[in-house]
Amino acid sequence: MRLHPWPLSIAVATVVLAGITAAKAADCPRQDALGTARVLSVDPKIYPRVGLKSFPQTLPLADHEVVLTFDDGPRPPHTQKVLAALAHECVRATFFLVGRSSAESPGLVKRIAAEGHTVAHHTWSHPMSSKISFEHAKKDIDRGIAADEMALRGASTTTPSTPFFRFPYFDSTPATLDFLQSRGIAVFGADLWASDWEDITPEEELKKVTERLEVAKKGIILLHDAQARTAAMMPAFLRYLHHNGYHVVHIVPAVTEKSANTH
Q1: 240 located within any domain
Q2: Under a CB-based contact definition with an 8 Å cutoff, are residues 183 and 46 in contact?
Q3: What is the pLDDT of residue 258?
Q4: Is 71 a residue of the active site?
Q5: What's the rounded Cα separation, in Å, for the pair 222 and 110?
Q6: Range of the domain at 118
Q7: CATH number for the domain that contains residue 107
Q8: Percent of the chain that is helix, strand, coil (3-state, to 5)
Q9: Which residues pair with 236 in a beta bridge?
Q10: Where are the alpha helices (H) located in 154-218, listed in sequence order?
Q11: Which terminus of the chain has fewer CB atoms gathered within 10 Å of its CB, N or C?
Q12: Mean pLDDT of 118-135
């Protein structure tokens, strides 16, 4: 496949597009936008653990389909820049939020949801689960969920409205995995990542993630909206996806009888 070298000079949209509620590119106000190709409902009973870097199974994605996921937010001003880039391309993503950060920036959590993205969970304090006791790990998971829900809905609850979770550093234990599965919460790993936790430039990050995607051809992509380099890279990466035939899939929780009765 011939790659298009999209430069990082493509500007981040300075104004978030208002009223973007449709998932498909055809419904996007900007004709040349990447758009969101389809919505995939994920049932934790069917997909309790996904992401080939950690687990044997991943989401049922076709060739050249990607799921964009962001960890460690919300963190101003980088999260706002990521949201602007996504809005400019009419793309929806999933944000795995750190509860402590959600408590500090509840308005930003609400904005993530209001712009059509999925709010998921990433603990309260970002610990390595294998380095702390099981009881401590459970409390940190639940405190994080409660903080995210408080920021999002104004109610502190350990029952997540979106039962999606990712372990910091992908560092799970058999006990914490079983704990989340027993709660009906899907655990997300990733199929590839941008290595944006490394001390690299936005250009180097773009090169890493696109080269890995050309090998994998599809998958759940891990990024970090808390990183300035990722915020700077996103416009060029989204353009790359568009001009190389990739399609964005937005993941949402499956509607079950239980969840339908709680709304």
Answers
A1: yes
A2: no
A3: 52
A4: yes
A5: 22
A6: 36-254
A7: 3.20.20.370
A8: 40, 15, 45
A9: none
A10: 174-182, 202-216
A11: C
A12: 98
